[in-house]
Amino acid sequence: MMTSAPTILATCKQTRFHLLDENPSNEVDVEGLFITIASNVPESADDPAKAKAKAKSKSKTTGKELISDAHLRLKGGIHYGLLGRNGTGKSTLLRAMADKLIPGIPHVSRIAILQQTGVDDESGGYGKLRLDKTVLDAVLSSDESKNEITRTAEVLSKSFDSEDPLAPVKAIRQVQHQQAERDLFLANKNANLKSGARGFQARKDLKVAEEKLDTARERIDHLTRLAQDAETIDAETVQEDTQAAAEAMQNLQSQLEDAKMEKEARKILIGLGFKEENLTKKVSTLSGGWRMRCMLASVLIQTPDIMILDEPTNYLDLLGVIWLEKYLQELRERSETTVLLVSHDRDFINAVCEEIVIVREQKLTYFRGNLAAYEQDFEEQKLRWGRMKEAQERQVAHMEASIRENLKIGKKTNDDNKLRQAKSRQKKVDDRMGLQVNANGHRFKLNRDLVGYHLTSRAEIDVPQDEKGAVMAIPEVTELRFPGPLVSLEGVTFKYRGNDRVILDDINLVVHIGDRVGIMGLNGCGKTTLVRILNGQMSPSRGKVTTHPRLKVGHYGQHSVEELQEKGRDEPSLTALGLMMAETEGSLNEGAVRGLLSSMGLAGRIASDVPVAKLSGGQLVRLALARIVWSCPQLLILDEITTHLDFHTVTALATALSSFNGAIILVSHDRFLTRSVIEGKRDTEHKLDEEFEGLEEEEDSPETNPRRRSVYVLKAGKLSEQANGVEQFEKSLVKRVQKLLTTR
C-alpha cells in the first residue's frame, strides 16, 4: 500500500486584473482563495485497475481546508508581517505562493522564498543551494532568473568557440525557439483568463504566438536540412543569424556583470555572521543552522517582486537579527520588493513590518500598521464593542421587562394600547437590536443601510476575542529539605584539549531557588558549553562546580525537538501519551500524564491519537517541556526554546515561566522573552496575559522576597552582568550593525 505525499491545492477567482504579459502588476489581488492540504488515496499494488477506478470515481479530493474564501491582497513595495497561531496554514500559504499554485498570482512574477527548514535532495542540493559549491558561489548561483541567463549566455558563447561555422546559427535559433515556447505558454493562459474586447485581443496575441513558434520550429528544421547540403546555405542568412547571436550574447553578458553582486553577497554573508575565511568552505561542511543562514543570504541577494521569509530569525543570534532588521528597513527605501514574513520575534516584526496580515478562522484580515499598533487597536476595539454590547444588553433587558409588564396589564384590563405597545417593543427587540453602526462607521439607519430588507434583523455585535495560544502551566517544584544554592560555579575555566583558545574564562555564578538568570551572547561564544557544565554534562578544565544534593534539573536543549522527531521516525505509531507513559515509568498514571500534557497545550486526541512524527514544531516544543517538568525540577535550563513557536505561544510561555516558583536559566536571543521572564518587565508595546507575574506583582506583595533577576552577556569567555539588562546589550549590537552597514 502506497500513499503519496500531501498536496497543496489552491483555487481562486480570476479576473482581468491577473495580467500575464511581460510587465505584470507589482501587486497581488486574489479573491475567493481556497487552500487545502490533500492526501491522495492509497493505491493498491495488487490491483492497480481497482485503485484507478476508485480514484476516477472520487470527484472531490479529501483533505484539510486551511484557507476558505479569503482575499489575498499585497501592495507593491510594502513589508507585511503574517500572523496566526501554529497550524493555521501560514507556511502552506507561503509555499503555495512561491510555487505559483495560486492561479491569480502573475506567472512571470519573480518570487524568492526562505522556508523554515532546508532538506537535502537527491540532486546534491540543500533546498536551492548546491552542496558541492562554496558558500559564496552557492549564494551567487541561487537566483534562478540569473541562472537561466547564464545558461543561455554559455550556449551562445560555446557556439562561437566551435569550428562549425553554423554553430552560432543553430544556437540563436534554438534560443529563439525556447523563447517562443515561453511566449506561447503565457499567451495561452492570458487568452483563457480574458473575455470581451480584452479576450478578443488576447486570442489574437495567442494566434501570433503560435505562428512565431511555428516559424521558429521551421527555422530549426530548415537549418538541419541545409546542413546536409552545404552548397544550398544562404550566406546572407548565416551572417544575419550570426550577428544576432553575437548581439544576444553581449546583451546577456552585460546582465551578468556580477562584481557588484559578489560584493553585496559578501556583505550579506558577513552581516549574517559568516567570517571572511568561511566563505570559501563547501556548503556540505556546514551545520544545518549555517546552511539556513546561507539560504537566507541567497534570498536577500536577489531582487524579486515578492520576497517570502518564513521564520528568518530562527538560526540568527541577536547581532544577526538586528542586522537583518536594518537591512530590510534599508530595502524598503531602495527597492519596490514586496516582503511577506513570518516570525515569532515580536521586536523584529515591529521594526520591519508596515502592515499586518492575520490568518484567523480560515480568513485573511489586514491592519495598516505594525504589530504594536495592531495589538493596541485590537484592545481598543474589544473595549469599544464590549461596552456597546453591554449597554445594549441592559437596554434589551429593560425593554423585555417593560414588554412583560405591558402584556400583564393589557391582558388583565383588556387595554389594547398596552398590548400594541408591547407588540411594537417586541418587534424593536427582534429587528432593531444589534449592530448600531454601518460599514463606514456611521450611525446605523434602517432605510439607508438595509434598503429592501426593512424587516430583517441586524447583525449581532461581535466583540473581538483574544487570539491566544493554549494556556501553559508548569507544576510547582519539589521542596528542598534544607536551604542552599542550587548550583554554583567558582572560577570555572574550560578549553578543549589540543586547542589553545579558552572557551570559558574564570566564570563565577551562583543560582538560588527563585532566581531568574538570562544568558545572552553571539553564536559560538560558548553559551552551550556553559549550559552543559551547569547541567553536569561536561566538567570544567579548571574551577569548581557545586550543586545541591537534592537538585533536579529540567534541561531544554537546542536539539530537543530534533530528538523527538527522530523518535517519531523510529516509532511511527508513538504518541505523546505513549512516550510520556514510558518515560515516567509508572511514577504517573495515565490520568496524571494526560493532565500534564493538557497543561502544556496537548489535550485530548492530540496527546493520544496523533503520532509524534506528525506533531507540529510548536507541539513538539510543548512535548519537550512536558518531558522535563513532570518530575517537578527546582531548576529549569532553557536553551533557545522559542525557535518553533508562534508569538502567541511565546506569550503563553512567558506567563507560565513568570509564575514558576523554581529557578530559571534562560539562554535566548529573543529580547521579548528575556525582558519578560528574566527582567520581569511588562513591555509597553506588547500585551502580556493578566496572569503574568513580574516586577509590578512583586512590588504589590511586600511580604514576598523579590527575585534576583540578572542578565549576563558571554563574550570572549567572560561572563559580565548587564546593569541595564537586554537594553544595554542591544544598544552595543546596534552600534556594531551600523558600522557594518556603513561599509556597504
TrEMBL record:
> Region (Disordered) spans which residues?
688-709
Protein localization = Membrane
Superkingdom is Eukaryota
Q: Which residues form a coiled coil?
A: 206-269
Biased composition (Acidic residues) is annotated at 690-702
Q: How does it sit in the membrane?
A: Multi-pass membrane protein
Q: Which PANTHER family match?
A: ATP-BINDING TRANSPORT PROTEIN-RELATED, ATPASE, PUTATIVE (AFU_ORTHOLOGUE AFUA_1G16440)-RELATED
Please give the name of this protein: ABC transporter domain-containing protein
This chain's source organism reads Penicillium diatomitis
